[in-house]
Amino acid sequence: MKGFVTTASTAALLLLATGGVSHGQPAADAPCAGQIHANPGFEHGTTGWTAGPRIVVFGDATRPAHTGRAYAAFAGLDVTRGDLLRTTVTVPANCDLTVRFWVRTTTTETSRDDYLNVGMAVTGIPPKTRFSLAFDGGAQWRQYTMSTGTATTERTATVSFVASETAGNGATAFDVDDATFTLS
Fold first, then answer.
1. Which residues are CB-contacts of 20 (< 8 A; sequence separation ≥ 6)?
2. pLDDT digit string (tens) for 47-76?
3. What is the pLDDT of residues 139-161, one digit of tens each?
4. Cα(74)–Cα(49) distance, rounded to whole angstroms?
5. Contact (Cβ atoms closer than 8 angstroms) between residue 82 and residue 163
6. Whole-angstrom Cα distance, residue 138 to residue 152?
7. Cα separation values, 79 from 71, 121, 169, Å
């Protein structure tokens, strides 16, 4: 009996010293770190993206991807058209989302009539075009960066790539790859 009382007393002291019994405490908030998009390099086609009918995912050795084997292409057809590639991610409270992406431009155009507008819409902030890229962007991959900033509440961020091409002045193809969505 004395052993039982001593064991019970020791258990009671442990509970007092450690702050009590755990009752299924909720998990800590997700850390503000890491890549949050499942298909940033288009290696799985347009999975995770909303893509217009003319968005093509290539894996072409003559026009290699920035990394991996695939990239999204707004194929230049020298026709008047517009096309869209878009995705939405959730940004946890107190986190900043940094979006980095690479663009390559191939063109026969001689005037600035073909564009790739890149925008970001964040909950509570009016949508904004962050980059307006024209035919003179260059045939080499170039990186661009944009950020949401932090907020005390969870938000969604929608990133859109909108291509606009005008017929009759040459064809422009915009290629997009490695669109990373990183929390910090």
1. none
2. 999 998 888 888 777 889 999 999 999 878
3. 899 999 999 999 999 999 999 99
4. 14
5. yes
6. 39
7. 22, 28, 9
**What is the SS3 assignment for the chain?**
CHHHHHHHHHHHHHHHHHCCCCCCCCCCCCCCCEECCCCCCCCCCCCCCEECCCEEEECECCECCCCCCCEEEECCCCCCEEEEEEEEEEECCCCCEEEEEEEEEEECCCCCCCEEEEEEEECCEEEEEEEEEEHHHCCCCEEEEEECCCCCCCEEEEEEEEEEECCCCCCEEEEEEEEEEEEC
* Residue 127 scores a pLDDT above 80: yes
